[in-house]
Design a protein that fits this description.
The structure is a homodimer. Chain A is an alpha/beta fold. In chain A, 39% of the residues lie in helices and 18% in strands. In chain A, the strands form four sheets. Chain A has a seven-stranded parallel beta sheet with strand order 5-2-1-9-10-13-14, sandwiched between helices. In chain A, strands 7-6-8 form a three-stranded antiparallel beta sheet. In chain A, strands 3-4 form a two-stranded antiparallel ribbon. The interface between A and B is medium-sized, with 32 and 32 residues.
Chain lengths: 313, 313
């Protein structure tokens, strides 16, 4: 079964790993949010792409959810010694990724090409596809003013109330050929349990992407990142609240109306199932929290089973 | 006594450290070879500038002569994992230098400005002055063809016979204002025991530099990098031989004719002293090999004494 998963960072990477564990090599393509990419000390940093790549390469730090395990931070210490504010915790091996990516982008390669080469070198078997090759930058409106996404997310620790989200450059973005052909070839689409506003939202906002997904006739399954009224990780719950969404699995399901034909919720949200079904989605109620590798593979298997049940294209 | 030292890498850095140990803070300016600078993985690497900076900041690895002591190489291991040929031993903390330098150069700062800021942040008290702000690249003619300097020097381990040296871009280089004003203010000039062909040579080849030094009327003292017919470090001896120079302190002195008014040789070369004096230089015969910090300061003191004896301007 050829599957295209849409994903942001940590939660998306976990489910992608679970899907990969169940699928045959090469059957999984992941379309990844790049709207929180940014330039740091002249290097192009792509947090979600890298979290996905490190996770699927078996290099991820499972404790932090970001970065590489057993990482050193000597370059960052030196950057501090030079008087720079080392607010973004760039590890030494992680730095190598940004250095090579930046070099290759400057040499004229697309982000799609660079990502394929880096992930391939690390032995990643799935296709990692940036949502677009054009730079897009998420900015967050807060009572303190407009903040760059990483400023809000990392530097200020997600403490600001989010009053709105801007996606700069999204109008110039286009669906890359590799994403279009992966969608054409797919037997099912999976929306990973990533932040629907700043992870899945930017992917859907690439001109043409939402239309391509809406018109996709095979099973489309979304997994709720909200469990028991809280985000599994990150600020999705607070962000949904301040932007006027109901903070629940049902609230998320509403955001996937017309997009998803199946929806996966946690047992703790079972009572929301019937109302979600009225949105036109078949609901699977299961343990939606991925604590370890077994959980990932189990949830991956259940998601693919739901896709099968919904009828492969 | 305000001193301008001309230097390349390791040998030059040792004597500069010795001079700094004896002079008052701020009295030393070092004009440094930049013709072996190169781009590596999109980063601007300046080996001689960095050897000087790390040495004067007390960070240098005294065993290797290059790089930073207690350095880690995790980024390089990752660069290898990505399939790149990791022939240049880039340490993690060293990498931070190249990242910040590259960012600032791309933002429009001159190499002079970037170097001053980096060295200042590390607490270096002397002025580190690149020989020019324009890119110059040493290429070495060998029986295998023309090689980039680091290709010859590091990757191929200096094993090729050197038939000639090209300094690409030297015609567009000019003496930076900071170098010109340091020379104007100087009470003495010291040519460090660096390779006369590929370290001091490029500095002298910057248009206007040699003329400025020749017309400089105060003491100018050169220290021989050849002791007992051999280079203290690096390929200076072999290079001199194949380019037709006599490989001796006398041979080096001949290269400094019209430039130096004093010349420092090792006791093992004492018998060459009288002939060097016929070139118009006062000769100091001493222990010219710097094994430790005491040696550096002693040689620095002796060099400055010779400058004084030659008569401050």
């Amino acid at each position: 079964m050829r599957v295209v998963a849409l994903a942001g960072g940590v939660g998306g990477a976990k489910l992608a790993a679970g899907l990969e564990a169940v699928l045959e090599p090469g059957e999984l393509s992941v379309v990844i949010n790049t709207a929180d990419d940014f330039d740091l000390w002249g290097l192009r940093v792509c947090p979600d792409l890298d979290t996905m790549m490190y996770t699927l390469a078996g290099l991820a730090n499972s404790e932090t959810g970001w970065g590489i395990r057993e990482e050193s931070f000597d370059a960052l210490a030196m950057i501090s010694a030079y008087g720079e504010d080392a607010w973004f915790k760039l590890g030494d091996r992680d730095l190598a990724t940004h250095v090579l990516r930046t070099q290759r982008l400057r040499a004229g390669k697309s982000l799609t090409e660079v990502t394929a080469a880096l992930a391939g070198a690390l032995g990643v078997r799935s296709s990692l596809l940036p949502m677009c090759d054009e730079p897009v930058a998420t900015a967050v409106k807060t009572p303190e003013g407009l903040l760059e996404f990483q400023e809000y997310f990392v530097r200020r620790g997600q403490r600001d109330e989010v009053l709105g989200v801007e996606l700069r450059g999204i109008g110039e973005a286009r669906v890359p050929d590799g994403v279009a052909s992966a969608l054409t070839a797919a037997d099912a689409i999976v929306f990973c349990p990533s932040n629907p506003i700043v992870s899945i939202g930017p992917i859907l906002a690439v001109p043409g992407m939402r239309e391509a997904l809406v018109s996709f006739s095979a099973p489309k399954v979304a997994v709720s990142p909200i469990v028991g009224g809280k985000a599994l990780k990150g600020p999705a719950d607070e962000m949904m609240r301040t932007l006027g969404y109901e903070v629940s699995a049902l609230g998320v399901a509403g955001m996937y109306e017309e997009l998803a034909t199946g929806f996966v919720i946690d047992r703790s949200d079972a009572e929301e199932g019937p109302e979600i079904e009225t949105l036109g989605m078949r609901v699977l109620t299961t343990d939606a929290v991925m604590r370890d590798e077994d959980d990932r593979a189990r949830l991956g298997r259940e998601v693919l089973k739901l896709c099968s049940d919904l009828g492969a294209r």
